[in-house]
Amino acid sequence: MEDLPTGYYLDNFKYLLDFVDEHYSNLLTKEELNYRRDFLSCSRDAQRLYVRLCGRRGPYFRVDKIFYDEIADLDAAIDTLRDKGFLWSPKDPDALALLSLLTKPDLLIAFPVMNKKLLRGDIEASILAQYSVSEVVNHLSLHIVEPLGHEVITVYRLLFFGNLHQDFSEFVLRDLGLSPFENYTMDSSARYFDDRAILDATLASYELEASCYEVLEEKNLETLIEFTDNCLHLQSVEEPRLQARFEKICNRVAREYERYKKDDLALKLYNRNDQASSLERQARIYAKQNKIDESVSICEAMYSAARTESEKEFSQNFARRLSKKHGLTLTWMPEIVPDDFSVLEIEINNDESLGVELLTSTWFQKQGSQSWYVENSLIPGIFGLYFWDIIFLSIKGVFFNPFQRGPADLFTPEFLHLRSVLIQQRLDSLRVDENFQNSVLSNYDSKMKLANYFVNWNWLDRELVILALERIPRNHFHELFKHLLSDLRHNCSGLPDLVVFPKTEGYLFSEVKGPGDKLQDSQKRWFKFFSTNNIPANIVSVSWRKVQY
DNA sequence: CGGTGTCCAG
DNA sequence: TTCACACCGTCAC
DNA sequence: GACGGTGTGTCTCTGGACACCGGA
Ligand SMILES: [Mn+2]
Ligand SMILES: [Mn+2]
Predict the structure, then answer these.
(1) What is the pTM (predicted TM-score) of this model?
(2) Which bases along strand C come within 7 Å of a protein CB atom?
(3) Does ipTM exceed 0.95?
(4) How far is the centre of ligand 1, averaged over its atoms, from the C-alpha of A496 (Å)?
(5) What architecture is the A196-326 domain classified under in CATH?
């Protein structure tokens, strides 16, 4: 595998800064623009040191523990960064973070009174209880530095990636060939953000998410109420993605209120949005409070405005149970179609180390079949291969950086609308396409390892793809792909554990269920789909063979 | 001293 | 740190 | 059977260094 050039990390950092400067400079504040200008004016050593430190946990670093061969003059680099405001030595550092700079033996030397048998965490706690922060600082007298400007880097990163979960390691993995990306064309005007207000709101929503997480960790009702009052004000955001993110946070908090039996507080938050999870919780709460009419009317509204299969399922099932219990007749409810999935009962020896799915797969192999543990990798994977060029079609604005696993509109209705003709053609041609197998396989070979939202290369053997293409009939693929396309976001999960190929012909999807496990909702939906489309699928119900001693 | 987890480089 | 999945305990019917 | 809570792998990968911990 090819080595990266010395200082590769600085190249990546600068690439990102320049890219953002080129595409988004009109969105940047004076401070953010100056940040880049000042950084570029630093010496190469200083730039390298800064990027190195910012890539590490920190937040503080002992100067005597900083070792980088490629940085010639460490002290000069530190001075430069300090002068330009990229680094400082904090006067009032966090004591715990300071203690973390010492190993446990060093801690015990510095604070000899401690009982050596304690765990590290207990030692730290007891030092903090015993000494004031300034005493700890003076006592250790370490020369420490802290890189500054993380917030600015965050802005640049968000503008570049369009999210905050990707980071500089993307560059490395790509350049090492470990996780390369499709070479789609980005039109030069493509931008994820157009508006500073949206950018700021997005940054705020990431912070809100983080503080929500902390608040939930605390497990304290007062904190929760305080958080609600201070941070969850009704806000109107134009950006739908942002709105959804905000509502998700509200719903998480509301769910926590339910755990405290504060249904009224929960409802107040749930009421403000119409996300599926919110509607579902509202229906449950009203039912629990014996407000049957309210609960049923939520279900009815949910049913008639259902955006996904799962909303339809839930509203129907929940209302059905309610009506049965309270003797209501609901005109809007469709006839019940009882589930009738074929079940195969088998008995095998337990082996904790392997897991029930692999054991069942082995069982099928012992019957002379071939069997793979694929879950959601096979069908979405072949879909991703067959539709590859459509997924990565350059449509204006959907590709705005080189590290995307799919177009920006992949999970919005826009995706289908803007490509409807091509998608329809591809689906139609599937039935007669002499080339279907070849085009999937040739994409498998030519796109190998390239990141695609639907293709999980690690779980998609070439051999498996070949066999699946041979054994699964065209019209089955047609229906499977149509079903995926009907809800790309939700229908890429819930597929059965195994795909089984009997010795000579045919195939079978098999969902393995150990003792005490049952079909999940998403799995049920797939099984309904299988049964209406005559796609062979069963549930393998496993029980453990009694071991004789 | 071996097992485990975390950090970090590439 | 999120998501998808399995597993476990409880409760009511 | 319904429901809620929890645990696990895995998130894009792999290996090395190191610290910590608990038991011999
Ligand atoms: Mn499974
Ligand atoms: Mn299963």
Answers:
(1) 0.93
(2) 1-8
(3) no
(4) 7
(5) Alpha Horseshoe (1.25)
